[in-house]
Amino acid sequence: MDAMLTAGEPVTVILRKHGRADVRYPATALDDDGTRAAVRAPWAGPPVRDFGFVRFEHGDVFTEHYWRDRWYAVKEVRAADGRRKGWYCDMARPACVRDGELTSVDLELDLWVPADGSAALRLDEDEFLASGLPETDPEAAGQARQALDELAARARAGTFTELTAVP
């Protein structure tokens, strides 16, 4: 059984990506109800990462939501001044919490939901296909596609704030 995170305690987030080294970074636990774990972390990448549709940069804060029963993780991104940039969503296997670590296995499909209400962007379909997942694990690939469709529908409905509210 998964462990529970305690609000205010440090946690190491581990993101596993197919064929690449794990990404690890420190975060602070915000909430854990046994199904969804929420953590907060500063941008842990290079000083600036410009995707064209959004820039992640020093000072950005990510409030990340991981579910133990859903095939996605949702990361609310805010600038250093508190302005919401949007939500970056990873299609991922259900998360696991053990020994002060939260692990998420990325399935390569992503969705960007801009805070300004403009259309969500489906991302990385080419990486998803190149990963071989649709052939090697069709069940997981189907779950990833279903999760992407669910989140895209939420984006159209404007319900991301509800999805990522922290008590």
UniProtKB/TrEMBL annotation:
GO molecular function: hydrolase activity
Pfam families on file: DUF402 (PF04167)
Keywords recorded for this protein, A-Z: Hydrolase
Residue intervals of the DUF402 domain: 53-159
Protein origin, superkingdom: Bacteria
InterPro entries membership: DUF402 (IPR007295), FomD-like_sf (IPR035930), Ntdp-like (IPR050212)
Protein name stated in the entry: RNA-binding protein
Source species taxonomy: Bacteria, Bacillati, Actinomycetota, Actinomycetes, Kitasatosporales
